[in-house]
Amino acid sequence: MNTALFTHPACMEHDPGLGHPESPERLKAVLAALEAEQFHFLDRREAPCATVDEIARVHDRDYINHVFATVPQDGQAGLDADTIISPASGEAALRAAGAVIAAVDAVVTGEARNAFCAVRPPGHHAESGQAMGFCLFNNIAIGAAHARAVHGLRRIAIIDFDVHHGNGTQNFCQHDSDLFYASTHQVDLFPYTGGVQEHGDFGNIVNAPLAAMAGSPEFRHAMTRYVLSALEVFAPELVMISAGFDGHSRDPLAGLHLTEDDYGWATRKLGEIARKHAQNRVVSVLEGGYNFHALAASCATHVRELMAL
User: Fold this and answer.
1) Assuming Cys at both sites, which of 66, 141, 160, 276 could form a disulfide with 166, CB separation 3.0 to 4.6 Å?
2) Mean pLDDT of the region 69-73
3) Half-sphere exposure for 176 (CA within 13 Å, toward CB)
4) Domain of 196: which CATH number?
5) Average pLDDT for residues 203-231, to the nearest whole number?
6) At how many degrees (to 10) do helices 24-33 and 292-308 cross?
7) Separation CA 39–CA 43 (nearest Å)
8) Closest by Cα among 189, 190, 298 to 241
9) Number of domains making up the chain
10) What is the pTM of this model?
11) How far apart are CA 53 and CA 100, in angstroms?
């Protein structure tokens, strides 16, 4: 079994407009990097569209209807001040969520060893009834809900190393003792959530915020001391990764100093826990990352490590 790569050209057609940081060029850079010879054995698959019923496991139907009703015939329209959509955004959002659903199917049934979803728009800020932070639907939460509803998995962990806290994913997990969410992120940064005191209803939320200018030592300490230790105790049946690479030192939207090697290290460590508790099952989903070169290099390192798990 190989690592599966789920993506779709429609994800590059979502266009928030000139100068918006969440541009189609992000995904073009990632996919170009994954064309290198070392990725020859990736199992490349086309992302299907999620259904409204699948999305409605996480999002209010009124909100889903609002998103599609707002999709413009031409130009751009805003779901909020930062989350801008274009005529192709509806299909892109369906494909992004559908990629994660298909990745869960492939990994849980043993068709793939693990999977990376190279999709946009991203998802971890999206609340059940609200678009936020460039995110329409919470792709990784939709995938987790699918794993439970269709495959009967109970204990699902979502680890988020995006530089911004995944408020939408935390809210999806925090009231359910069989869901686990852990995040490393920069403090005092959008969406201004994710404090260490936020533990969820059952102690199933772990936040390990990092101060601005933190680098590899601080990130690896936070992951080891807080995230990985709690994940080990949780003993997940499926490990899902919100793979945001905007903590990289070259990223323009934040102030951490991580490198590609840090993302590779984190991937290996999460894979070790997945091997011990989750039958090697790992599904990773692209979130942020806004310097094209840093994003491409970080994704390549992340996927290379997934292929080695």
Assistant:
1) 160
2) 97
3) 18
4) 3.40.800.20
5) 98
6) 40
7) 9
8) 298
9) 1
10) 0.97
11) 15
pLDDT at 230: 98
Residues 6+ apart with CB under 8 A from 286: 27, 30, 116, 117, 118, 119, 120, 122, 243, 244, 299
Tokens of 236: 């997940």
For the chain, how big is the Rg over CA atoms in Å? 17
DSSP string for 209-246: EE-TT-BHHHHHHHIIIIIIHHHHHH--SEEEEEE--T
Query: 1 falls in which pLDDT band (50, 70, 90)?
Result: confident
Question: What span, in angstroms and rounded, lies between the C-alpha atoms of 189 and 193?
Answer: 8
Is 8 one of the annotated active-site residues of the chain? no
Please pick, among 125, 185, 248, 277, the residue that the annotation labels catalytic: 125
**Cα–Cα distance measured from residue 133 to residue 83, given in angstroms and rounded to the nearest whole number:** 6
171 closest CA partner among 234, 110, 125: 125
> In Å, how far from its chain's centre is CA 41?
23
Alpha-carbon torsion (26, 260, 267, 178), positive or negative: negative
The Cα–Cα gap between 151 and 68 comes to 28
CB 29 within 8 A of CB 7: no
CA distance 94 to 156: 22
Can you give the residue range of the structural domain that contains 112?
3-308
Tokens of 46: 């086309």
Task: Return the SS3 of 201.
Answer: coil
Strand partners, 115: 4, 283
